[in-house]
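Action item from last week, closing it out:
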Amino acid sequence: MKFLEIDDPRDVLPIGCRLLRLFGLPNDSSLKYLFWFQCSFFFIFGIITRFLTEIDEPITLVCVGSEMVYSIYLLFQMGALYLRRNDLYHLVDLLKECVDRSYSDDIEASFIRLNTKINKSAVMYSKYFMMVAITYIAMPFIATTVVCARNMRNSTGEQEEYVIPTELNFFYLDIRHNLLHYTIYFVVVSVLAVIGSIVLCTKDVLDFSLIRTTTMLFQITAMQIRELQAPASQDQIITVIRSHRDTLECFNKLQKVLNIALMIQLTFCTAIWCLMLFYILIIGFDSKVLNVSLLLVILTYETQSYCQYGTQLTEKADEVRIALHQLTWYDQTVSIQKEIFFMIQRSQKPIVLMAGKLFPVNNAQFSEIVKKSYSCYIVLKDVF
């Protein structure tokens, strides 16, 4: 696909920016008609229809509730993308300015290798979401085709219900027995699946690539410090100081960009996990549960990836501090020693990605989320 082709190995976040424009959020001040159409469509057919669903027993409440929470999660992420779109583009521009500088051959080779790896991951992730969307749509379609074939051969007059990919009251249409109503419903649900896939793919490709690119800048800064040889010139020190300062600026901007998204991610994560696990336990194993399992796998991978990349960011940022301490500052001139001292002071503050300035986003936090989700799941299991 030409959309996923990358011509320049130095290009920063090409796939993420393309996905953001595809979602209807280009880098301009025009009214985002496509974006608001998708939001309206998703709200009308993805949220309202679930509120219309009649809940007559606790099991139905859990089933509808788990899908409702996931739909609200998607709607919140749409709003978050809209609110932070300008900061996203600004951060991409800052990252481009940082990588467009002149580096040594070794650092340049490392940058090309790391950036190519980031861009390839973005391409693979986009293809993965395409496959997920196709699978989510195809499984109930194939199952319903089989049901239709059996109904045509059924001579008793009793008709099997069509397989619906998601539990909702589609404006009181008979989507379980009327083929025309089911076709309308299935087309709408397919569009909802595509919108949801684009939302998650855009968010994840952008956020993951931004975190990894900022991590790469800390690696480059640490390499620049290690390349300094005594006695270093004033120009060399100024170059390293500027690189360190700009990298910290990129991290601060990254923290601002991800605050909303990370808070939404961690807030909804525990609720969705425990509800969906309980949903699967109650319903059993069938085609509907396979679809729900796909959503659970996506959410688990998203949260784990955020925490993993957050941990890597902290570790690579700490390499700058280590490199500064290993620097033979005592062989430098007094003026350069002062500059190095100020860099060491700035590097003492831990670089930790935070969700809403409240929770750290790292592997330890992911373990806590798993424990809390399991505890909530056990409580729901005992109650019902």
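Closing note: The beta strands are 354-355, 359-360.
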